[in-house]
Amino acid sequence: MALDDVVFDQLDVAAEPLDERLSQLTVGHLLRHSAGFDRLKTADSMVVRDRKPWCPYTADPLSTVRLDFTPGSRYAYSNLNYCLLGMLLEQSTPEFRDFRALMEQEYDLAARGIRFIDGPYLDDEVIYDFRHSGFYGEDYWRYFDFKALSSSAGLSGSAMALAELLSSLRTNGRFAVTQAPAEDICRENVFRGCYGYSVFSYQPSAERLRIHVQPGLLYGAPSLAILDDEGGVTVWVGNGTRASGSSTDAMLEQLYAALDAHYSGAASH
């Protein structure tokens, strides 16, 4: 696949798109979360309670989707972006035709103790704190299609295992997510204001540390993966949700301050 491949042309969709802007949607837009899907405006079809998502099982409903904004005009995180990318990957690797099998082949997850979850809890899963998770509790897994969520959420493993995987990919040049060219719509001084290829970049000012972030949140389990421009990789995995505000943003603020101070101190000595 190429970044400028048109998604609608690559997927087997039976009808022409009702929203003509879908014909502009590219692989690059999906990776950079600038595709036009905004879950704050339109319900996230991947995590609707008790409803089986259409993606990744069929691409036909894509023709009826009404985009929330023109592709490339701004950023907005969407799980559907990842699901469509997963469908494209399955289509481009006919020897697998299964996203999970492809990920295992590419990244040797099992050997690292990383697994896809399907519910109920794995033997080595921690106890999650659901006090501030709305109407979801310990049986949250009953309400989601984890097979469909595979390309956007639902991995189990240690923070160290993920950090080592990301570090090895970066060292071997197989993790170009931080190398996306700058776009006019980028605002790196705010969280989620400038997406690269799946990660968002953050740098409050030119003289401060620049980082690239992939936050995660499955109910009761917030997490962060941070790649910084000094070559470091930081992973945090939590087991509870804050009473108010974003768990990942609150932790990111603390981790950024610590990392910025660490590298500033190292430079001064």
Automatic annotation (TrEMBL):
UniProt-listed InterPro entries: Beta-lactam-related, Beta-lactam/transpept-like, Diverse_Enzym_Activities
Superkingdom to which the source organism belongs: Bacteria
Coiled-coil boundaries: none
Entry-linked Gene3D superfamilies: DD-peptidase/beta-lactamase superfamily
Residue stretches making up the Beta-lactamase-related domain: 3-106
This protein's name: Beta-lactamase-related domain-containing protein
Organism, scientific name: Halopseudomonas pertucinogena
Classification lineage: Bacteria, Pseudomonadati, Pseudomonadota, Gammaproteobacteria, Pseudomonadales
